[in-house]
Amino acid sequence: MDRVILHCDCNSFFASVETVLNPAYKNVPMAVCGSEEDRHGIVLAKNELAKRYGIETAETVHSAKRKCPGLVIAKPHHREYVTFSKRVNEIYADYTDMIEPFGIDESWLDVTASQKLFGSGEKIANEIRERVKREIGLTVSVGVSFNKVFAKLGSDYKKPDATTVISRENYKQIVYPLPVGSLLFVGKKTCEQLRLIGVRTVGELSELSRELLTARFGKAGNMLYDYSHGIDESPVAPRDTREDRKSVGSGFTFRHDLVTSDEYRIGIEYLADDIGRRLRRLGMLCTTVQLTVKDEYLRTIQRQRPQSPATDISREIAKTAYAILSDEWSPGRPVRMLTVTATGLVPRESSAEQISLFDDGEDERRSRAEKREKTVDEILQRYGSGAITSGAVLSTDIGIEHSKDR
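Above: the chain's sequence. Below: its structure in token form.
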């Protein structure tokens, strides 16, 4: 029997919370922004009226006000956003304990077993929307499908305050006309490469063979083929109870903007080293790598990508993070800050069986990498954090602190 997965997305979350806190915002174009006095303050969220002026998330306040001189600026209240997010997820928890947050305003829910109590996935979705609106004052768009990827497409398909069901019977009619960039984890550069071979829609992507896609995109080609055919067996992963951990992240604002590929790579590898050590200490593996990048104007992007197999190996985390950066960031564009986050954590012992999926050569390579990184862990534990570091880090002046005696 197919699973029944919901993806619930709170519409214009920050702006909607501010409107609940201050109803006067309801009838004016409003945007939640950073410092209004700072020319480089950015738009974090906007309401529906502001959207009509073409205002976009992450553009500067200065630019947004040129488009809409009457734009009302609301200062962000991050603690309130966390509080509202928890309240929304408490409603979700009335229907299932299988809840996987995807940022502060989105969650996947596995309601397969809940249907006996509450009815179909569509009925549960509509009931959740009505309750969130009535009890909290926010609107939610919900996608209902047989996997996470199509459920996410469903929540994006119709906004605000709507339920979209994508089933095995109708998914080709709904999904195939959509731009290929609508698919989860398909970034701007991948779209550009697909356009070069005549692929603009999900339907056109589905017509390509797995062999062609893997030849052109490597491992990502398998993901492209699977997602375009509705193949996604990834589970809804509830918040991990081990130390209440759902992610391990590390970020750094550099002494000067990074502009070369070597500097990008060094920064990412430095952050991934820290993450790998912490994962190994916790006995956890990550199934997703998330990268946050901020440029010299404080504009920020955040993207994530599945990590297969689940890993605590720093170099594998760095490789995935660098692939995201290469796909989403123009070469030479300055990078002010990087944050790498390992998410979708699972206990190491529960994923041990995955090693059998690799060929012998891959098994051997990963085994050597694990031994190498565990040896580094032992050196650092014995002699302290200044005992060893990458030679590449020592040769840079990007602001990563290090001891001269390393």
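The chain is about 40% helix and 20% strand.
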